[in-house]
Fold:
Amino acid sequence: MKKLLRSRNTGLIVVLLILLAAAKILTPTLFTKFMLINTLQNNAIYALLAVGEFVVILTGGIDISIASQLAFVGIICTKISCANPGVPGIVFFIFSILLGALCGALNGFLVGYLHMVPMICTLGTMYIYRGLAFLVSGGEWWFAAKYVDSYRWWAIGKVFGIPMLVWWVVLIMIVIGIFLGFTAPGRRIYAIGTSRESSAVAGIKEPKVTFYAFTICGAMAGLAGMLNTANYAIGYYGMAESFEMTAIAICVLGGTAITGGKGRMDGVALGVIIMAVINSFISMIPGMSVWQKALQGGIIIVAVAINYFTERSAERQALRERGALI
Amino acid sequence: MSEYVLELKDVVKTFGGVRALNGVHFQLKKGEIHALMGENGAGKSTFIKVITGVHQPDSGTMLLEGERVTFRNTEDSAKEGIAAIYQHVTSFPDLTVTENIFMGQEIKNKFGFYDWGAMRKKAKELIGPLSSEIDVNKPMGTLSVAAQQLVEIAKALSRDARILIMDEPTASLTRNECLQLYRIAKDLRDKGVSIIFITHRFEDMYELASRVTVFRDSTYVGTWDVDGITNQALVKAMVGRELTAMYPEKTAKIGDVVLEVDDISKEGYFKNVSFNVRRGEILALTGLVGAGRTEVCQNIYGIMTPDSGHIRLEGKEVHIKSPIDALALGIGLLPENRQTEGLVNELPIYQNVSSSTMKQFVKGGQLDVAAEMENAITLCKKIQLKANDITAPPSSLSGGNQQKVVVAKMLSAEQKVLIMDEPTKGIDVGAKYSIYEIMNDLACRGYAIIMVSSEMPEVLGVADRIVVMKAGRVTAEFDDVKSTTQEMILEASLKERSATA
Amino acid sequence: MPGSNYDRDLSVKEGFVLSKFLVKWEMILVYILVLLNLILAVFRSDLFFQKGTIQSIINAGLDVSPLVLGMVFILLLGDIDVSVASQMILGGMVTGLLMDKGVPWVIAVICGILICMVCGAFNGFCVAFIKMPAVITTISTSMLYRGIVEIILGENSLKNFPKWYNKIGWFNVGPIPLSMILFLIMGVIFCFILHRTPFGRKVYIVGNNPTCANYSGISVFKIKMEVFILMGFMAGIGSIFFIGRMGGGVSSSMGTGYEMTAIACAVLGGISTNGGKGKMYGPIIATFIMAFLTYTLGLLGVDPNSKKIFTGVILIITILISTINKQMIKDIKLRTLYHSNKNIEALNDRTNEQIKDLKKQIAACRKSGKSQEISKLQGQIASLKKECDAESAKLWEEQKADEARAKARYSAK
Structure:
């Protein structure tokens, strides 16, 4: 019971319940089935990016190029699909993952093997991918009419009444969650984020782990790129600008330590839901939409500050326990 | 088949110009506990890192049961059955005990996933005989240091280690925990595991080891049977120099009390510490590493502030909240780790020297670099710094000269009290002597000096008075240094806590 | 006393060395700048020599310049501030709103700058006091500050700014753009602050080694706060440059990406993101390079969005160049040439030393004209090389044999 009270997720669930209660009073329409599904669908892209970002943050790094990767991969998929309407959607589904992984692998190589600072490295690749996205698009915009149904189905097609996009998010969260929690490579991501020195002693190759963490992140961003264009049936080089910030926000909100090594997939899932509720909340109340950015920013800063204060009190607790020895 | 399970010959390892190991030898028999002893900085830790493949030796050979081996990383050494338990436990505090044991060699089921069940079962099997109290599902960070060490042993056992290296495992254990560790070590030995046991404590050596090897100043001194060597001979082997010739004659006149530390405590570090230091006096604060000496100094200097107690400077009570206050009052500190606390390696020497006294050189809002250099040159000449010129970065200097730069930095301001934390750590004999001379000279000029040191001969050779700490408390004070012996200090620094404390 | 007659001249011996000066990073930047100009002059000579082209290049590129100057200090601390563009817009908004209310422009401008300084102080507080990572702090405050602008302005934009704003973005004093004059004046002041004052020195010390700074009686908290507030101040100045360049208008969506350009300029100028390394001159030159680069590419027919690729590639390559050092080269050599065998490396290093010595002797002989000696020494070098190669090969063989045996042992288990 004590453990349950101290757990971060409990706190998040309480926050969520308060938010939902407020939503129930202020915007009764939120709880219709249509609105719920719509909310989930609208925030699914953030969720995909957040999962990728989560993996990178666990290693102690950060990737701010994911939104650009999304745009780059999304544009390429769109362009090919529009030029060849006969190609089935699954080809793009797989292609987007592979291409995204390639983009991520470049980041991973630079950070892992060439020891670049993650922030600056991904700042550079952010420019590059965004520029490539423009180059590929030729400045052209694609709208709904140009998209074929087999392409769009991968995002908006419904199974059991729920859009595919949401299914993908659920599936990926489970897969990545299992990967991180129950496989050796996954646990090694936690290990290098916790302590690089201990990892070296345990025989874990840090460059390799960093490399595949960024690759996974890229794969998620690539997939998000394809699904984003399929979902909204719009593709242009500037899409998803600053989505990386939201993804980082979700991770931090879900209790992921920005210094690495700490965080759980269920926390990220909760972070996604809270962010989704806040977003839809904002969109429901008239005049609130302008508040979105400021609220998100404020929320992250408070979440990180709380993380730091709890960590420091834990340290103090540890000291006190050591003091008992003297 | 060789007589020795592990043999190292002529191993050399340098780190950026500093020799950490200088042609050392080592021979380990099958099924023996072999103690490895030496002062701090003698190269013991580097030595085990070479054996386990964390570092690669610059030259030399390593034989495993007579066959030459090279370890590129810890994986290689683990495959050969070598495991190490490091001094600072290298674990993942957020991961569970089970995971810590199996990190890097996970048990997987046929789908390639973690087999948590199997791992937990195996972890319990491994931990069970060592301790019945450790829950394998708890995060490592919640365990006591002793328990963490047991987990590390379990980790080594899980890898079928035939050679086990323990780096000062008893340093932070209580008496009972030590006894438990002895029992486990003996059990392992009887099962045929060879153990290298690194320790500072003679007690450990007598209790466990059959042979002992001593390193000093990165070199190999010798190997003896434990039964065949006396305590004195061993101390001499570790210290290795004649006391008399090593230290300059003391000439300072001792005056009134300058700094008085009265019953200060800091939770988690030390409790009820009191001592004083007089003008022209060198007070040695000694004890084992981790006894809380450095923390006491940091509390006087304002890096931390004590929870309770008083500090009086020339009879007036002072409240030092930060090093800025301390420096303003005339208290200087020569920090323990010159690399991380004393020097900015990337900036030129003269900027390092003036870093705490920049105010003196401001002229019209501008730094007077010429005056700054002038001052640095004067100071550095006084302490006979060997450097190319004053704009060279400290990283280009040898350890002893780097320390001199930190001393010069401390001298650039007029002070009353100087705290020197391990002033001669890791520097060569010649440089040590000149540091002692400087200290002596300062004492003559009326400075009160507190010297923290783990080297007993140094303490006896330099200090006018000795305070010994053990586990956060002052356990002894020796006013008459001439009649104090190393054994007396050692006894005080190993003194067990009384039951009431 | 031993060594009491020892006296070493510690004073600075090495004066100005031209060959070293010419390969300094700042000089390399100058070459790049000249090269860019040459490219422009050759390929678009029609435009290049036309009156006003250079001025407009500089005017267009310098609206980010105040941010660069502030960012240098932030990066020198080892921190980063990605909220500067948002601060800039927020400051601009405050000025604009006050102007709308009819407040005298002096007060409006000062208030705009003050609000930026408050923003900077908040960042500094989070980083220096709560000790949050600068990246995450400023990412979230960048959303926060811009979000505040969105709340207040919504879709509207402000148009009422002092008339002289536009002059900064567009006016030339004779042949020289006003923005350049202002930038250079600020640059000189910042060079002075960083390289000549105790404050600048403290920034270097804190950036290189905060622990040591603390032990030396330097308040890390105070320095970090001051630098972040200075950054805020420069963001306020930046808002004047920016709005002037934009023709006297500001809205919530403007100026995105300016923080990244500012960081890129600073990094290109040789400031290490790990803190403590770099000089002020580099980023000043790099700001011009960035201006010319974007403009040159534009004139060569590359559209503004694809130019981002160049910016990114240049950023990454610059940092990679700065990470290559002796240790890295040694490591690569060890891995590729010496089969990761330290014994072979030690042998080769030793031999190389000997050969170097012999070569010096040869050079000495050449001067004195002893040709016989030379051939003898050359023979020595050859034999040394041969010996070393043979020995290395032997060691390598041994290592291979050891590895094979080790493998056999593992598989036996």
